[in-house]
Structure formats: structure tokens, C-alpha cells
């Protein structure tokens, strides 16, 4: 039982003071196991905005845990434990299902261009024999067209297992899109692009921060964007907080951006409000 075996090592992943001892960790883990089924998980959405026309082309599903005593917990406070305890399987299934049913209700970015929903997938989920089946079931059950779903994986996840790559390829033949998250921070970025039918890469926020101050970061961002564009892969910049960052990314040719400059991750109802408020001025522009 991995989480118990390295329980002491896990504690440091949590905010200081959140957990004191191993017994607390074990009960936290048990609570987490039940949270997925017990209605304590929420899925929030962060809009993704086109840098060509500023339309909202999609949104990323980001899980939160409404903890009975500790309030709203962010993924960094429980995903690592969920991954080592296996609870991520239930959490991931919940997020995927909710994301598909929510996304069905979203308006189109513009006529004929429906919004995509991005869902983060952990290595353990991809290792499961049932993964392909459960994704296809979520699509069928919700009625979400496969091409509107983007599965976000990190480079390491994809490179770890051939079976994972085969599962992703099967899903891609059904129309599902695959994106590489935190691109540029893992290993062998370039070979990932060769081994998989990827349609999106997400530039890690650290490059967005670095590119304005550090010429090396800027060159790396330019290279990733140019290479992706030649390969027919869309680029999305993460963690865009300022207008000068947006301007630089647009100049380089990044396709889309996501970050606090536009909107934080918000509950489904707030996303709908944000989209409605945003659509009004954009429609006037047309
Ligand atoms: P990620 O997929 O790279 O998601 C982007 C993270 O950046 C999110 O943090 C988002 O709230 C945050 N962010 C967005 N815009 C800005 C900005 O302008 N500035 C800054 N400083 N941060 C920004 P969040 O929601 O805390 O999620 C953290 C990570 O947890 C995600 O990173 C993802 O790897 C993981 N995660 C979230 N939801 C799920 C899930 O349902 N399943 C799995 N397996 N992992 C998840
Ligand atoms: Mg992500
Ligand atoms: Mg990311
Ligand atoms: Mg990230």
C-alpha cells in the first residue's frame, strides 16, 4: 500500500500544518477514498481563450475537494495522495463524467466551433484496462462529441508505458483529442510528439513567466510554437496573468492562452455567466 509505505514522505506534499502525523494521513486518505462517491468533489473550469480572436474555445476541468472541516482543497493538497492510494481512479472517473455532462451545455465559441473540455488524466488511469471503455462510455452517456474532449497528459505519463500509448491511439481513432500538459518541463518532449497523435501542447506557466525576462526561455517558447505549428499541433500557454505576456505569446504565434488574466477556475454556473458576459462585446465586434 504505497501511501502508507512512504507516508512520511507524502506529508511534505501538503501545506504545513495541514497534517501532523501518520494517523492523520491515514484518516485523510480514507476520507479521500469516500469523497469521490460522497459528493465532496467539485469540478471547476478555467476558460481557454484564442489569441487570434479572443473567443473562448474551451475550458479545463480542475478538481477541488470541498472538505467538511478544511474547506475547499486544491489538487496539490490531495492528488499526490490520491495517486499513491489509488483513489485517483474514482476521482478521475468522477471528473471525466462531470466534465462531459457539463461541457454538453456550453455554447459554441462561434457558429460551428464548439468549445472543447480538457480533462487531466493520471498515469494510473491510463494503466487501467477499463480506461478506453470508460472514456467512450462517458461520451456516449453525456452525448458529448468525441472531438470536443481533450485528454491532458504529462510527457512522463505517456512515455512510461506502451500500453498507455496504444489506449490513447484507440481513443484518437474515436475522435478524442490528446494534449501534452506542462510541455517542456518533462523528458524527451520531442519524441513524445513523434510517438503519439497529439493535437495540443500546453506550454508550462514557467515559460510564460520566463519568456519576457529570459532570452533562453523566449527561444524555447518560439521553438516549441514553430515546431508545433509545422506538425499541425495547437499551442496553449498556461498561467497567463498579464497583458504583456499575452502580447508576447500572440506575437510568437501561440494559438491560445489560459490564466488569471482571463478567468480563474470557476464552478460551472460561473463559467456560464463569464461566457455570457464575454460573448456580448465580442459579438458586437463581428
Ligand atoms: P495543470 O493541469 O497544469 O493546471 C493548471 C493549473 O494552473 C491549475 O491549478 C490552475 O488553477 C492554475 N492556474 C491557472 N491560471 C493560472 C495563472 O494565471 N497563474 C497561476 N499561478 N496559476 C494558474 P490547480 O487547479 O491547482 O491544479 C493543479 C494541477 O492539479 C493541475 O495542473 C493538474 O496537473 C492537477 N489536476 C487538477 N485537476 C485534476 C484532475 O481532475 N485529475 C488529475 N489527475 N489531475 C488534476
Ligand atoms: Mg492540465
Ligand atoms: Mg499544465
Ligand atoms: Mg501546470
Description:
The chain is α/β, with parallel strands linked by helices and 286 residues long. It has 14 helices and ten strands. The chain has helices at residues 2-5, 7-11, 22-35, 79-85, 88-103, 123-127, 131-142, 155-160, 162-173, 189-195, 205-210, 215-230, 243-252, 268-285; strands spanning 41-50, 56-67, 71-73, 116-120, 149-154, 177-183, 200-203, 234-237, 256-257, 266-267. An eight-stranded mixed barrel has the order 1-2-4-5-6-7-8-9, surrounded by five helices. Helix 13 links the parallel strand 8 and strand 9 (256-257). Helix 5 (88-103) runs parallel beside helix 7 (131-142) and helix 7 (131-142) packs parallel to helix 9. The protein is globular. Mean pLDDT is 87; it is low at 1-17. The chain binds ligand C2E and magnesium ion (MG) (3 copies). One magnesium ion is lined by residues 181-182, 202, 238. Residues 25-279 form the EAL domain. This is EAL domain-containing protein.
User: Based on DSSP secondary structure assignment, what is the total number of beta strands?
Assistant: 10
What does the main sheet amount to? 8 strands, mixed, barrel
Mean pLDDT: 87
Percent strand: 15-25%
Counting helices, strands and paired strands, the structural category is alpha/beta
Ends apart, CA distance between termini:
57 Å
Low-confidence stretches: 1-17
- Looking across the biggest beta sheet, what order are the strands in? 1-2-4-5-6-7-8-9
Assign an overall shape. Answer: globular
The sequence of SSEs as H and E is: HHHEEEHHEHHEHHEHEHHEHEEH
List each distinct ligand once.
ligand C2E, magnesium ion
Helix content: 40-55%
Q: Any idea what the radius of gyration is? A: 19 Å
What is the count of helical runs?
14
Domain EAL: 25-279
Organism: Cryobacterium lactosi
Protein name: EAL domain-containing protein
Amino acid at each position: 500500500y504505497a501511501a502508507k509505505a512512504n507516508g512520511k514522505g507524502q506529508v511534505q506534499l501538503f501545506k504545513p500544518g495541514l497534517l501532523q502525523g501518520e494517523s492523520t494521513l491515514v484518516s485523510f486518505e480514507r476520507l479521500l477514498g469516500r469523497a469521490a462517491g460522497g459528493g465532496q468533489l467539485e469540478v471547476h473550469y478555467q476558460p481557454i481563450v484564442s489569441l487570434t480572436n479572443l473567443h473562448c474555445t474551451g475550458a479545463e476541468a480542475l478538481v477541488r475537494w470541498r472538505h467538511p472541516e478544511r474547506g475547499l482543497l486544491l489538487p496539490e493538497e490531495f492528488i499526490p495522495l490520491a495517486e499513491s492510494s489509488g483513489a485517483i481512479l474514482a476521482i478521475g472517473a468522477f471528473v471525466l463524467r462531470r466534465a462531459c455532462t457539463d461541457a454538453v451545455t456550453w455554447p459554441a465559441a462561434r457558429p460551428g466551433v464548439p468549445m472543447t473540455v480538457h480533462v487531466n488524466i493520471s498515469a494510473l488511469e491510463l494503466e487501467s484496462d477499463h480506461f478506453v471503455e470508460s472514456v467512450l462510455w462517458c461520451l456516449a452517456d453525456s452525448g458529448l462529441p468525441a472531438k470536443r474532449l481533450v485528454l491532458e497528459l504529462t510527457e512522463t505519463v505517456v512515455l512510461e508505458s506502451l500500453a498507455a500509448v496504444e489506449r490513447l491511439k484507440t481513443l484518437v481513432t474515436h475522435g478524442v483529442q490528446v494534449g501534452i500538459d506542462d510541455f517542456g518541463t518533462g523528458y524527451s518532449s520531442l519524441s513524445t510528439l513523434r510517438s503519439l497523435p497529439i493535437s495540443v501542447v500546453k506550454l508550462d506557466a514557467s515559460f510564460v513567466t520566463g519568456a519576457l525576462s529570459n532570452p533562453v526561455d523566449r527561444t524555447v517558447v518560439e521553438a516549441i510554437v514553430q515546431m508545433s505549428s509545422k506538425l499541425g499541433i495547437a499551442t496553449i500557454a498556461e498561467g497567463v496573468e498579464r497583458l504583456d505576456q499575452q502580447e508576447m505569446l500572440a506575437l510568437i504565434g501561440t494559438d491560445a492562452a489560459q490564466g488569471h488574466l482571463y478567468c480563474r477556475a470557476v464552478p460551472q454556473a460561473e463559467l456560464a455567466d463569464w461566457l455570457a458576459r464575454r460573448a456580448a462585446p465580442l459579438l458586437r465586434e463581428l
